[in-house]
Amino acid sequence: MRILLTGAAGFIGVHVRSALSSRGHEVVACDLLIPSAHGEVAPTPAGICRIDVRDDDALGTALEGADVVCHQAAVVGAGIDADDGPAFASHNDLGTAVLLAAMHRVGCTRLVLASSMVVYGDGCYRCAEHGYVVPPPRRECDLRSGESESRCPIDGQPVVWALVAEDAPLRPRSFYAASKLAQENYALAWSLGTGGSVTALRYHNVYGDLMPRDTPYSGVAAMFRSSLEAGESPRVFEDGHQTRDFVHVGDVAEANVRSVEHELPGFNPLNICSGTPTTIGEVARQLSQLRGGPGPVVTGQYRPGDVRHIVADPSRATEYLGFTTSIPLSTGLEQFAQAPLRDAVSTTRPRV
Fold it and tell me: What 3-state DSSP class applies to 116?
């Protein structure tokens, strides 16, 4: 198949491109190479077309003959503050809308969309007394005093996490999260209006080789690695017991290949995860040990809007695509501890 791959020079895009090519697919690879992710003077890698997905004319040419679009391009990460909002909206939301319109014009009816767990906001929780509940956002006064757990909205008692399914309510808590949900909403509307198919892959905490180093737009695993390379202790927020689902980028690339090769009718969001929780503190501890560096420091610091636990149910991706993660966290972290990272880049904000 002929596949237009956006964001092909990014952390995940590089691995997706390699995996698709190894399966014999023809990949038209494009990327804008924005300075916040690739540096101020980023050379265009071999085989990459430098295209902004907001550029309708350029997209029309790139889409010629495409059977599927694999859309990885996005401004990602927690960002710095609310001033990042326009960049998230421009690159992620407008870019996706322009891409979908261009696909409609050329008659390309299949989209594989890189979405994210952040569309859920917080995770799923059970109260011993009241069953499944939606905890209110954690209060800053509690976080300041070290009270980190989410609580039942009825009696205020601590709740325990449960697996999040794809039909859970979507409550984004950051500008990035809002932009990823907007991408899904545009894709859903496009699917309903055109009859096209969309597989929206909700990535969980992706890590692996070629992650960008420590910037406001990179993941926590890369931040820990960057600290250790500098001879410093990884700094862990809150008490370190917050849980996430870490997924190796090799597994994420395989999920994209399966989505390309298995057309699903309509709009289908899928969790790309293992279903196994790991605490942030444990990831920091293992990386410190694997690199022979100083142990992590639990700072007690917090970021407003951060969620406590989010671990998702992987069963739908298994049912629909035959996909399960194959790289255990212990194996993945052992590789990642010494793996090459993308060279440090400017922490400049992404431009609108």
Answer: strand
> Is 243:279 a contact under the CB 8 Å cutoff?
yes
**With a threshold of 0.90, does the pTM exceed it?**
yes
With vertex at residue 279, the alpha carbon angle to CA 277 and CA 280, rounded to the nearest 5 degrees, is 130
Q: Which 3 state secondary structure label does DSSP give 258?
A: helix
Q: pLDDT-based confidence at 71, cuts 50/70/90?
A: very high
Cβ atoms of 88 and 116 closer than 8 Å = no
Tokens linked to 45: 């890698």
* Residue found under tokens 């917080």: 122
Distance in angstroms (rounded) separating the CA atoms of residues 86 and 107:
30
> Distance (Å, rounded) from C-alpha 169 to C-alpha 189?
18
Write out the DSSP string of 129-188: TTEEE-PPPPPHHHHHTT--S-B-TTT--B-EEEPBPTTS-----SHHHHHHHHHHHHHH
CA torsion angle for 2, 20, 248, 149 (degrees, to 10)? 10
Instruction: Please state, in angstroms and rounded to a whole number, the distance separating the CA atoms of residues 97 and 187.
Output: 8
Q: By the 8 A CB rule, do 317 and 272 touch?
A: yes
